[in-house]
């Protein structure tokens, strides 16, 4: 909090606005901290929105972030989004476009200590109010929520030298979901769908799981798995027993495993005989993204869908997983199998 002073003032109500002065002789960070970690997973495809009124020249570099103690910080440069008119301006930030600068790591939205963090090293005076998280908005975001590009393709530099945000997975142009769909881990528009991501968080055993930029990557030196869910989860997903799972998948290496085994687990216990076999004939291990449509009936017995612990479980052949590396994102459930579904080609390369 060096190089900064802030006081609460009255705007639309009592003490509802912060009047901030950044001296410009060091780090000037305005932040909102939580006494206990917040689970903001449901806003992964949502927005941070706030109003800001400039009282001095807009700095060349101004970064908004979600922070959980550096290096766990996801950021978005916003200086170019401000007009500097001195009037109140509404800034709407797509959370999926907030990326870690080099040296940082993507924040885990399931455990957020600082849900709002606004930083510059330059002198800057401003007022700020109405900071909120939204699942959807009618306001125009500061960058395109799909491409994460600013109007005209302009981007701001980071606060530190050579800090341009990671561009993400390249697969985050996922189709919008509809009201009957269930979003499990989804970067596309899920505002109309049932968001079940908080019920089925990402986890793993036996390997290294990385959850960054709305992509989960799994490295397995031996037996293990990546999954969405917990041992205490018991969600009713029976509405999807005759439908499909959407899954974007990239395989870097099958290692010693002949395949990746994909399934869902009910609280009655995993049915080890019911899983979808993903091999190199369907998704080659060429580090390329494929969009897959998998019938739910191939993942879990229908009788187990009424109480589900693991909404997605990916592993390899037991005792043959050394060197298996894959990544996935955009996991959702639909109630019906698409009319154009081809069981011989369940996965299509994303181009």
From TrEMBL:
ExoP galactose-binding-like domain location: 4-132
Start-end of Low complexity biased regions: 150-168
SUPFAM superfamilies reported for this sequence: Galactose-binding domain-like
Region feature (Disordered): 148-173
InterPro entries in alphabetical order: Exop_C, Galactose-bd-like_sf
Gene3D superfamilies with a match to the protein in the record: Galactose-binding lectin
Name used for this protein in its record: ExoP galactose-binding-like domain-containing protein
């Amino acid at each position: 909090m060096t190089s900064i002073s802030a006081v609460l003032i009255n705007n639309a109500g009592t003490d509802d606005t912060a009047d901030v002065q950044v001296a410009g002789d060091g780090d000037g960070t305005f932040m909102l901290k939580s006494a206990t970690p917040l689970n903001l997973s449901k806003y992964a495809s949502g927005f941070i929105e706030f109003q800001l009124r400039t009282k001095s020249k807009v700095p060349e570099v101004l970064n908004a972030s979600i922070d959980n103690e550096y290096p766990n910080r996801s950021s978005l440069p916003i200086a170019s989004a401000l007009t500097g008119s001195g009037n109140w301006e509404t800034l709407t930030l797509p959370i999926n476009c907030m990326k870690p600068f080099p040296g940082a790591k993507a924040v885990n939205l399931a455990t957020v200590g600082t849900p709002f963090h606004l930083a510059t090293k330059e002198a800057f005076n401003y007022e700020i109010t109405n900071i909120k998280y939204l699942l959807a908005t009618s306001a125009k975001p500061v960058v395109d929520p799909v491409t994460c590009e600013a109007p005209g393709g302009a981007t701001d530099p980071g606060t530190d030298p050579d800090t341009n945000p990671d561009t993400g997975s390249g697969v985050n142009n996922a189709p919008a979901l509809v009201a009957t769909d269930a979003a499990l881990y989804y970067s596309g528009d899920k505002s109309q769908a049932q968001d079940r991501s908080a019920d089925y968080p990402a986890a793993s055993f036996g390997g290294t799981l990385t959850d960054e930029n709305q992509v989960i990557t799994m490295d397995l030196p031996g037996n293990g798995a990546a999954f969405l869910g917990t041992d205490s989860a018991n969600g009713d997903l029976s509405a999807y027993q005759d439908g499909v799972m959407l899954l974007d998948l990239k395989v870097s290496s099958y290692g010693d495993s002949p395949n990746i085994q994909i399934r869902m687990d009910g609280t009655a216990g995993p049915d080890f005989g019911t899983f979808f076999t993903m091999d190199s004939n369907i998704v080659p291990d060429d580090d390329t993204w494929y969009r897959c449509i998998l019938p739910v009936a191939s993942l879990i017995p229908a009788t187990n869908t009424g109480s589900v612990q693991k909404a997605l479980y990916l592993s390899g052949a037991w005792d043959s997983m050394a060197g298996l590396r894959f990544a996935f994102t955009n996991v959702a459930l639909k109630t019906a199998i698409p009319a154009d579904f081809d069981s011989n080609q369940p996965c299509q390369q994303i181009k």
